[in-house]
Amino acid sequence: MSSVREDAQGASAEERVTDFDAVIVGAGFAGLYALHKLRNEMGLSARVYEAGSGIGGTWHWNRYPGARSDSSSWIYCYSFDEELRQEWEWSERYPQQPEIMSYIEHVADKFDLNRDIQLETRVTEATFDEETERWEIRTDTGDVVSARFLIAALGALSAANVPDISGTETFAGEWYHTAEWPQEGVDFTGKRVGVIGTGATGIQVATEIAEQADHLTVFQRTPNYALPLGNYPLDTESRRQYKENYEEIWEWVRHNFSGHDYDFIGKSILEATPEERERAFQERYDRGGFGLWIGNYDDILESREANDPVSEWVRARIQERVDDPVTAERLTPRDHAFGTKRVPLENGYYEIFNRDHVELVDVKEAPIEGITSTGVRTKDGEYEFDALVFATGFDAMTGPYNKIDIRGRDGQLLRDKWAEGPRTYLGIMSAGYPNLFAITGPQSPSVLTNMPVAIEQHVEWISEVVQHMRDKGLDVIEPTREAEDEWVDHSQEVAYATLLPESATWYMGANIPGKPQVFLPYLGGLGPYRQKCDEVAANDYEGFAFATREGANT
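Structure (tokenized):
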């Protein structure tokens, strides 16, 4: 037993439990559902470790102005409990961060999850003991516990990428990263603000800061094909409709390509007349959301011939919305095909550049040379600021795993095994790391889907294999090297049959210097992936090896 220590909720005890059936790392959507499933439904002992001062994962850390979901609220939630689905009422199509946090806290209270969550505790090491066949987990607060199962609910986008720009430490003003936003918020009223980065987050935060700042300068490396958000408040009738049709809606999103409330048109763009294309594009653009991306013609991501019409169409919409032709051209992407980068949703982003107090700097034309005490120095001169905001994204998917010393068989570090890119089977497990499960890890659909739908599929599949092991008296599971190799090859083949690997994106690790260039998520679609996972389970967990403590393989 460990010595007395007050936990993050203020509770203390003379003795602390140190042996668990499962340790879960992370208290976002994935970690909370894993705790509910394993503890509440299966009766396992479990502990969640969370580095933040509160639960919520992504939504705890990303409190920047403009942070909101880009999935429809009625499917950006859990589906596992009918009472929960019916009692919670969303206020708008795309809820903002505070509302999502209120929902997450409601879930934690409803299912009594907080008592097994230890906050402000970062897992630093996890080592598989081959003699006991248990994981030993260490934290930055001195905890040393063991668990039969280790569940990585780390989040695909949780390792913030702060660019290595010389002089940042000399800046006399305040600077912030959007993924590590102060809990108390920031007031930019009357200030000169620089925003570095124009991905999905940068677009959200710049739009909001433009309403406050005395002057806003946006530093852009690569323009994006941003689409209208199309947000609207939900009235009583809207809520009634989705609540009455929840079963049908969820059956649809669980089995379609993206886990969103969109489906592809069902034909090639090359079969459509110019008039049909125009109608289809405009309808989806007017509705808002991802429809033009993942509810469009079937083949727009498969060839340049199929992609060019929609790329040109979105470029024209951008140019229409920006008054100054030079700024409009800078905001118009021409170096990549539409949809091959993560498509941001915006709510008046392009129009902020029609205001006198908002300026766009193209860092390809004028590269940033360093941060000074008063601002940002570029090739063309220096810009003075009171505050800087880094909207520079994440070391995606593998980054959160690399921040922990995870050692499997023979003491091999997971980051060493993944040095040339992640190696998994189904994105759920990696050979040589028994009983270590990843929720929406690399080489699963994860970030290419509506995350709560993907999370539920993973947690339920993992809980089923754990129950299978309990029923059969099995102690250890890990994928075979052959199954892993086949999945890695298949994952890359699926990606390279599309245009996506041609673009320098965080999907490819291209935003992190020195990171291997491999396609990180699985591009085969959530519905087909779910079917594959179900087939693996039905075939006695084909591709996985089981063992008992006595060493008998099954």
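The two ends are 34 Å apart (CA to CA). The CA atoms of residues 442 and 520 lie 5 Å apart.
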